[in-house]
Amino acid sequence: MLNEIFIKPFVDMVEAPDFLMQVLWEGLVSGILYALIALGFVLIYRSSRIFNFAQGIMVVFAALTLVGLHAMGVPAWICVVLTLGVMFVLAVTIERVVLRPLVGQPDIILFMATIGITLFLIGFGEIIFGGENKVMITEQLGIPTDSVLLEPWGGLLILEQKDITAVAVAALLVVALLVFLNKTRMGRAIRALGDDHQAALSVGISLQTIWVLVWFIAGIIALVTGIAWGARAGVSFALEVIAYKALPVLMLGGLESITGAIVGGLMIGMLEKLFEIYWGQPLLGGNTETWFAFVLALIVLLFRPQGLFGERIIERV
Amino acid sequence: MLDSGRTETLLEVNNIEVIYNHVILVLKGVSLSVPKGGITALLGGNGAGKTTTLKAISNLLHSERGEVTKGSIVYRGERVQDLDPAALVKKGVIQVMEGRHCFEHLTIEENLMTGAFTRRDGKGAVAADLEMVYEYFPRLKERRKSQAGYTSGGEQQMCAIGRALMSRPETILLDEPSMGLAPQLVEQIFQIVKAVNEGEGVSFLLAEQNTNVALRYAHYGYILENGRVVMDGPAADLRENPDVKEFYLGMSDEGRKSFRDVRSYRRRKRWLA
User: Fold this and answer.
1) Which fold would CATH assign to domain A2-303?
2) Which are the contacts of A296, defined by CB distance < 8 A and separation ≥ 6?
3) pLDDT tens digit sequence for B178-203
4) pTM for the full predicted model
5) Which residues face A286 on adjacent strands?
6) Which of B30, B50, B133, B192 could form a disulfide with B207, with the two C-beta atoms 3.0–4.6 Å apart?
7) Does B97 sit within 8 Å of A204, measured CB to CB?
8) How far apart are CA B81 and CA B60, in angstroms?
9) Which domain range does residue B154 map to?
10) Chain B neighbours among A 194-233 (CB < 8 Å)?
11) For residue A209, what is the enclosing H or E element?
12) Tell me: the pLDDT tens digits for A210-246?
């Protein structure tokens, strides 16, 4: 038994490095999608201290809108632009109808409001788009669908081009976001708002503008995630479930940290795949991916309640 | 220095009432005016309504569920109580809140830059003003790369005032700048306030518990008690007023009194109320 837990998996890894690479790559791809969803959470949390439960359904909603518009005969790239428009309208609507009337209420009420948004979007989405599964318009968007075969150490490594694209686009999005937050006037305002609402108001930062902006950015992130995930698994309301994977990512990485979201996402993506393949399947009968991330996050929380990269609570003595 | 007969009035507060949560009446008819180029002090003890008055003017009450229910607030002849805080900042009125309220995870320089959020007059002008702020507060220049949360209380107060200056204000509503600071530092902050007032022509409405310091730097003062203005006058007159001396400066004809005596005397004589 000890052999099975502590020795054999590592022997397997060393003996078949190409397979190990394949596992890690698969983990990386799902990890980057977790990271993207977590980023959406982080952004909204930082600027408004709202834990946005609706981020997952926004992914589904964006993907469904994209596919739905295409089914109506709109050219693929125009669909993307229109979907962005829809996400913007959604952001404005949420700010007007839900957030603005709740300004100054306790955080828990705003959290519940986002659960309300989630339920509404599920119902509304089903009425408009129907509940059945759909296929992402991967090729129409010009995303290559071939595979790249690599042969490291005489083995075989298969990389799907759409996964490579997803990773590249996600990386680009993250860099753009970091530059935006750190170098621009609006980005600074978003961070300022996260630190101190009242003070942000007092210097003339408008809550309304910033909220619409962050929800719109979260919408853009949702669309990218939706396309990438939809290309692998199809588009359906089941997609929402991957949003829950962002929770352990947030626990691990910390609610305020962009670095945390990215590193946490990648770590969870890769570790859960590794665990599943080398420990879960041989020892526990598989299907460990559904819970492994949460256990990992709980263990981290025991030692670092603010997560690995959470903003340290500045306390002067 | 300030001839109130000739200077124009910037801000006029007429008989306002403020109610929190629909029930708690905090201000019961406060009137005051702030002349251009002056330092006006709003004095009084805890809970007198100083902060509420400032927040009513800067429209920050709404997010605390407070409301101006009566009276009017006029800035440069224009009713401003229905504007949002951002619109008021654009008109040149900005508040420095009690307790500093710096953005603690932002650096000092980033904090200052947020003050310029509403400005549309270009990067050059903002950069010039940043230098201007650093001239008034050399200490901030040394700490520009530090996270504000890790700077000292005095530095944070300077940062908060500097941040307000970055909006190119005409009037700064300064709430309790002396809070939690050593006497020496309080003096320093007030000297800078005076320098900004004279150098940049910025008018100040200053809420302060430290009556002694405030009356030395201000031109005019209002004394609030229990949500009402109970006395007002030029700072020099207030300083010499026997009641002010007794109740706020802790002095009387018999010399300094112990604080205990002052309090009991005050309880007996509901002063001017």
Assistant:
1) ABC transporter involved in vitamin B12 uptake, BtuC (1.10.3470)
2) A248, A252, A268, A271, A272
3) 998 999 999 999 999 999 999 999 99
4) 0.83
5) none
6) B50
7) no
8) 10
9) 32-61+83-240
10) 194-206
11) helix A207-233
12) 999 999 999 999 999 999 888 888 888 877 777 788 8
